[in-house]
Each structure stands twice: as structure tokens, then as C-alpha cells.
Amino acid sequence: MSTTAVRANCTVTVRLQIEFVNVAAVPLPVLAPIVKIWSDAIDQMWNDTWGGRSGHVRWRCCSVVFEVDARIGAGTPGYHQIRIHLSGDLPGGTTRSSTGIGLLGQTGDWEVTENHVVAAHEAGHLLALDDEYVLDGSGSALDEHAVPPYRATDPRCIMANTGTTDVTQWPEHIDAAMSALDMHCPWQCCVLQPRGAVLTLLRMFKRAPSPVAPQRRRAPGPPPDAAAAFQQVQGGRPNARAIVANHVSRHADYDTDEVVPELSSPVAARRWLAAIALGRDSSPEARSALVGALGDESPSVRMAAAHALLGQGDDRGYPVLLDLLDGAYTIMRHPPTLARDYANRVLERYSGHHVGFDPFASAPERAAGVAAWRAWYDAR
Ligand SMILES: [Zn+2]
To answer: Which CATH architecture has domain 226-379?
Structure first.
């Protein structure tokens, strides 16, 4: 095993053993400090000290501490093997550093020039976490969470963004890693922890509504004009796209004539932004364009259109969400758990109804949740 975990009472210690294989023959005095920076970043990200905060993470009623054991070498048993390449020299002509997803003996190929954010992200893959971004037609990454009601001014999800230092891990990541590591937090730990124990127990049975901690808020500037906004989502970095989309969803007042044609763009990110923008447009033209977008080939666009219609009090968004609720869409390079989670949250928000759907549950349990949502929809 290369990523392992042990639990002693109410503390889980996760050990990440990573060996950096110097295939590029980078001089050791250069490579060693880089490996130190990466190792520290992995430690800080997953122990939640990125901004100088606690030093462990809470998981249910337990604490989780991440230990990073990084070394330079090759083939040491029990260590993930990350091959180091010079910039622009990744194998197969790819342009992105990559890491296998899993706990057992993964391999990866990283450019030596990668910064600390990329290292923290790639290490997430060694905790069995998948990417949470979508690659659009042009090959650039689109943060899958950059859809309202997520706030652009919150720190971005580390598994969805490496283009900004304003990133964090989410409770869902810790849940998923603990599940992959087969850890559980015994109920006694909740009893031993009087403060907040009731809330934590409740959370164990009812998933918390939002993974995004409202931490830093910045006053938003005016939104870009329509042409600039569409250009930014098409070509921008993931974080820039998220900011544009959130701006547009809250403040933009674009001409219907400028936005509707974007729903025919060959670029999915532009259609996605168009659906978000039309959510603020109460004209009949906008409404019918949104109804048309419910049939878009991209699940992200369908989701945005359904959300926009429900936001306008138009119930025609519900069937799309019911479909996305338990879909197996591969729009993201990870299991479609997040699409299901998002669909469920939008359903709850606009229906005021809860069926206890758990996007993380097993397929039969999810099917029961979907059936409950469908029953609710049919009975309306
Ligand atoms: Zn990744």
C-alpha cells in the first residue's frame, strides 16, 4: 500500500508515501527544494493549514491527520512512483501533469515546474479522489462547481482548480478518502465530544446542505459586457470562468438578442454561460430558448437551463433534473456523484421538498431516492 490509514480511538492518521523518480536528471540541489515545496503543500492542503488554520481536519466525530512521506528515488516498495519531467517534456506529448487515481502503487508524470497548488491537487488523486472539472471541446478545464449557487468569491475546490492559490479541500473529499481507505468513526467519539456532538451526529444522518464554507467575501465589480463574458468562459482559466459565471448569474443584464444565439455555439462553455445569463431574462424569447436548451447534448447546459427555468418559476426544468439525478454522465472525469448531488440540491431548493436522496449511496439506495423524487413530481 502506498496510501494507508490507521485509526487510534478518534484520530485517523493517513500516510501518503510518494517517491519522486528523477527521470529528467534534474540536479539534486534543484530538485530537493522543489520536492520539499510539494510535500509541504500536500501536508498543508489536506491538513487544512493552507491559510494557517487548524492542522487536522474534522471528519464526523473524529480527527484526520495527513502525514506526507516524500522521497527522491526509484522503485521503493510501498511508495507511489511519480516520474519527474522537464517542462514541456511529458510523455505522449500531453500538456498536463497527471497522477493515477487510487491508494495502491499509483504512478504519475509531473513537470518539475509544477507549483504547490498542482502538487496538492495531484496528491488528491493518491487519496482516490477524481478530478472535478470538465474538459470542454477546446481542451481547457471548466470547474464543475462553477454553477450557481456556488459563489465565485469562495475558495475554489482543489480537485477542480489548479489555476489559483485560493483553493481548499471540501468535507466531501475527506468523506470519499475515508471511505476509500475503509475507515469509520465510531459512535463513541461523538459521545466523547460534548461540544457540537449533536450537530455532528445529525450531520452523519443528514448530509450538510453546502460543502462551501463562506469564508472570504469580496465585493464584486461590475460584470463584463456580454462579448467579453463569453470570450472569458471560452478561453479563461477555470477560476476566471467561475467568477464570470457567478457575476453573470447575479448581476448581468444582457440583451436577449446577444445571448440567445450563444445557445447554438459549438463551444459547450458558451452555451452553458448563455443558459445562466438567460436565467436573468424574463422575456418570452429567453424563456423559449431555455426550454430548447433542456435538450442540449451537454448535461452541464441542460442542468443550467433547468436551474434557470426553475429560478423563473417555470416547472419545465424538473424532468431534466430528475434525469440528471441518477445519470451516469461522463461529462466529468470522475464518477457523476457531483452531478447527482447538484441536481438534488436544485430540486430541494425549488420544490421545498426533501426525499433524503444521497448521491453518495449505493445504486439501489439511490434508485429508491430517485423513485421518491419521481413520485413527488407525479403527485404535484
Ligand atoms: Zn487531476
So the answer is: Alpha Horseshoe (1.25)
